[in-house]
Amino acid sequence: MSRVDVVMPQMGESIAEGTLSKWLKKVGDEIKRDEPIFEISTDKVDAEIPAPSAGVLAEIKVPEGQTVPVQTVVAVIETEAGARDQGLGAREAPAPIPAPSPKPQAAAPVAATPSPAVQPKVPLAPNPQPLTPPSAESADERLRRRSTPLVRKIAAEHGVDIGAVPGTGHAGRVTRDDLLGFIEAGGTGAQAHGGTAPSRAPAAPVPALPAASGQWDATPWAGDRVEPMSRIRQLTAEHMVFSRRTSAHVTTFYEVDMTRVARLRAANKKGYEERGVKLTYLGFIVKAVADQLRRNPVLNAAVQRNAIIYRGQVNIGIAVALDWGLIVPVIRGADELSLFGIAKAMADLADRARTKRLKPDEIQHGTFTITNPGVFGSYAGTPIINQPQVAILGVGAVEKRPRVMTLEDGVETIVPRMMTMLSISYDHRIVDGADADRFMAALKEELQSFPENGV
After folding, report:
1. Could you tell me if residue 422 is inside a domain?
2. Entry pTM
């Protein structure tokens, strides 16, 4: 028998640790190669990790809920002789771990009521940089600053230098709880400019949601059921509040007549199905949005402090509802795809999202997001922007509604039409109302006059 180490994988260049959220196998269980054996959580993605080799789970070294650095041995598999050489996670034969399938990541595709909060002291940069030159830092200091993206975002929001915060993580790295405790205890951005970190023990962990939103904790009453938030729900809460505090949200609504699209869809639906693709209303909307984003680049942008980044790519994220939450896979280069190409990409990404086979990079680098609560019957909504993007489109239900129309002889009449309500939430820091309205008016016109040769 041989023993193969199972290690905590690195889920991205900037990820240095992961939380082992759940064991899917127990000691003594037989395991097939590439069979999921545990789940991890990072601030980028939740994923199931496959077994590097077939065998029996002989030892669990890291319990559920514990956060450990990448490459930490979390378990040991006993396998037949020679399997060690095939073990993708074995320390003796290191090779890339098969890409795990992400689970939902909070991406701000749903509406939420804004909460009163303290405004950030400095604008958010998508990738905040250390305030001291990297060449002036020691290796330990560089490791210390290599915190997770979520920690860097919170630090940038509050104007805090991560180097000034006492860290309790691996090699003194600053964790989210360290940073929130530091801020709660009165740490300010002044220490980010040469101040000395206070000589005190690391602050006790602060509940993430009250600290992030500025709200008081609710008190359970008799008969209430108190259930701890899951890791996914905590991240969702943090990202929702963070987006509200970062962007100046404004939402505008446009009613769109989808009757022409409905006719084109009915005429081509069977042909698409014969080619293995489902033709939906959302496919037409994604195609029209991709066309208009190229013509309205400020809606396909991002904010970096006092600069605007106009994205060279049009990558549209589509919110997918799963049993355990939401995930936003991204269609890369959507403006270069035909309607069939978009429909095929949507079906593929949605299917792999539901079967947990998405790769981490397939839920990143979006430049614009579309959420479709209309599939559940919603009339309209005010979605929250998916940071660091500057706009998100909400799609209401497509259904027959009465509409007043003027006939050729000038007579007005009420007729049934296939209608939908589109809403766009945009960041008023760089997107003016005129920009958003021009985009939506052009989007409405394209959908109402969608060309037959475009199907």
Report:
1. yes
2. 0.60
